[in-house]
Amino acid sequence: MDRRILLLYITVFMNIVGFGMVFPIFPLFAQSFHASALDIGLMAAAFSIAQFFAAPVLGRFSDRFGRKPILAFSIGGSALAFLVASVAPNLFILYLSRVINGVATAGNFPIATAYVADITSKEDRSKYVARVAGTFALGFIFGPVIGGLLGGFGFQWAFRIAALVYLVNLAFVFVFLPESLKVRAEKIILREGLFNFKRVYHGLRGDFGALFFLLFCWSFYISNFEVAIPLFTHHFFNWTTVQNGLFFSVTGTTSAITQWFALPYLTSKFGDKQVIIAGCLLMILGQIFAPLVSSALFIGFFIVSITGSGLNRPTVNAVLSKATHTGQGATMGLAFSFESLGRVVGPIIAGFSIGSIGLKAPFYTTCVVLGAGLFFFLRAESKKNSSTSS
Question: Which of 196, 245, 261, 383 has the most Cβ atoms closer than 10 angstroms to its Cβ?
């Protein structure tokens, strides 16, 4: 294995350990400030709105200045965000911390994916992009458990220790991670980067539109997951922060195994298209049945759903990367903007539907959205096959 990829894996892993520490406790932390379900959804949306605007800008910056400085900015910004959250006296400051973290994390997965694209061949890219995603999942094995344990001593401690993890990671990047970009863009075009609705519109109508929409659907699913699960399990199963942390650890383990071992084999055996379809179907299946059962079966069906998620996102990103000849950072930044849009819409709908319908509602809205994504993907593939054969 290329030493640079190993160092990138370590960087990504440490990032997600820090993020995973606060992931399962954030809704409960917000409730300590008397936040409603809609407030929690709006905070998640604020995080994603910041990502939406920042992702294409950071992607373009990485094409011009290199991947390493943008990754360093991302890591340092997240450390600052968690420190702000740890001393937040009210909901407004908690909102502010989410916006800071949204800007920072917009340079996380897309720049890591662009880094891999810089140093791998197209033949190997699906495997290594999958393993970057798998390394994210590995962080969720450890982060939520640590965060759940720290939550027992006070929610602020999880944020403080997460900030410390990010600061250690920042030092690691500066000292060990080499730059991957060999040919840099001559200039930065921000006209469409800062207010990138036009780029999103054209992206949706272009050759990659169905893939971009699938990323929107995937992130809609994840953002519902983020808002609904801690509230759902606390209400129906009376789970503590530690039990929620263990649950997220199980999902992280499932995703890591899927992406590190199953996904490279499945894409080489069946092809990217079939893996994407299977991923969507598994996500939908798990979401339909998870809220109807006991806690044990809930975990089982969510494992099915997370397996589908582990197949879906990295494969879509790998297909986009292989189809991009220049400007990997810009393409991955635009792809991440679609994910950010899903994270804007998803939490708001989750918070609203929980408040107006009930805690099971987000599972079913997610099924509808994922079904639409699968439909448009299949239609786009059918059109592509028709044009190729004619």
Answer: 245
Total domains present in the chain: 1
Q: CA-CA distance, 319 to 378, in Å (whole number)?
A: 15
pTM above 0.90, yes or no: no
- Tell me: the pLDDT tens digits for 67-83? 999 999 999 999 999 99
Detail the DSSP E strand segments found in the chain.
Answer: none
Return contacts of 196-205, CB within 8 angstroms, 24+ apart.
196/52, 196/53, 196/56, 196/334, 196/337, 199/56, 199/334, 199/337, 200/334, 200/337, 200/338, 200/341, 203/334, 203/338
The model's pLDDT over 193-225, given as tens digits with 9 standing for 90+, comes to: 444 566 666 567 677 889 999 999 999 998 887
C-alpha closest to that of 160 among 249, 85, 100: 85
Q: For residue 112, what are the domain limits?
A: 3-176+196-382
CATH number of 133's domain: 1.20.1250.20
* Rg, Å, the chain Cα set: 19
Number of H helices, E strands in the chain: 16, 0
Q: Judge whether 66 and 18 are in contact, CB under 8 Å.
A: no
What single-letter DSSP state applies at residue 290?
A: G
- Residue 76 and residue 217: Cα distance in Å, rounded? 29
